[in-house]
Specification:
Number of strands: 14
Strand content: 15-25%
Shape: globular
Strand order of the largest sheet: 3-4-2-1-14-13
CATH topology: Deoxyribonuclease I, Chain A
Radius of gyration: 17 Å
Structural class: alpha+beta
Number of helices: 7
Largest sheet: 6 strands, mixed
């Protein structure tokens, strides 16, 4: 089973650049998870009849949004959009000046035969850290709680743009970015807690060391110089670790400021 996750930073823009169709033809994922689609289903012309499409769009037009495409020969037992009501209520999601994060199309969960696949577009803490409290005190614990709730039913694969570099090997300039959005202590604690709960960062199961990034700034020719951040991930439940065949990054795929990440899992 090949799963791919990609923050496309606007699905219509990627299609307009004639990137999306050739990418799907070349890589042919069994499951494709998208973040920051910035569109509703039907707003983008997508000719993929072999896939079932699940879209979760933000209430605000042209903002955020996720989608999951699953090949039609794979059985999908259930689909859930956003956090369950009980989790949303527990963590007090509300409009924080930017919006209600549970109305921003940020999470989809599909249940397959052997595990759940979840995609997430985690809220950005913002350059002035004005959304850091929401991220640290509400979103991250709510997301972990949801993954643990799903895990009681069957193992979980979750992926997406988590908007944080976990450690110094996950960004080019860790010292210069210490305490800045995407590399604050609070954001990194969110990943620490996922790991402590038993979820595994699949890329780090397969590859160690710096130089492997999934996002690059538009400034100063950063992508060509590989001055980047690894903020896009695939995590799996402990029970699935023996089935991880490979986890990789596709920096050669253009069209977005993020590149796709890949997980191949047996079964």
């Amino acid at each position: 089973m090949k799963l791919i996750s990609w923050n496309v930073n606007g699905i219509r823009a990627v299609i307009k650049k004639d990137v999306f169709g050739p990418f799907m033809k070349e890589h042919a994922p069994d499951v494709l998870c998208l973040q920051e689609t910035k569109a509703e289903r039907g707003q983008a012309v997508i000719d993929l009849p072999e896939y079932e499409e699940y879209w979760h769009s933000a209430t605000k037009k042209g903002y955020s949004g996720t989608a999951i495409f699953v090949k039609k020969d794979i059985t999908v037992h259930s689909v859930a959009f956003g956090f369950p009501e009980a989790i949303s209520a527990k963590y007090g999601f509300a409009n924080d000046g930017y919006g209600d994060p549970n109305q921003e199309g940020r999470v989809i969960a599909v249940e397959l035969d052997d595990y759940f696949v979840v995609t997430s577009y985690t809220p950005n803490a913002k350059e002035d850290l004005s959304r850091l409290d929401l991220r640290h005190k509400q979103w991250d614990p709510a997301f972990l709680s949801y993954m643990q709730q799903l895990e009681k039913v069957k193992p979980v694969v979750f992926c997406g743009d988590l908007n944080v570099a976990h450690g110094p090997d996950d960004l080019s300039n860790p010292k210069a970015n210490e305490g800045k959005h995407g590399y604050t202590k609070e954001e990194r604690e969110g990943i620490d807690r996922l790991l402590a709960a038993g979820f595994a960062d699949t890329f780090r199961l397969c590859t160690q060391g710096p130089g492997h990034y999934t996002w690059w700034s538009h400034w100063a020719n950063a992508r060509a110089r590989n001055i980047g951040w690894r903020i896009d991930y695939f995590f799996v439940s402990q029970a699935l670790i023996p089935q991880v065949v490979s986890a990789s990054i596709l920096p050669q795929v253009l069209g977005s400021d993020h590149c796709p990440v890949v997980l191949e899992i047996a079964g």
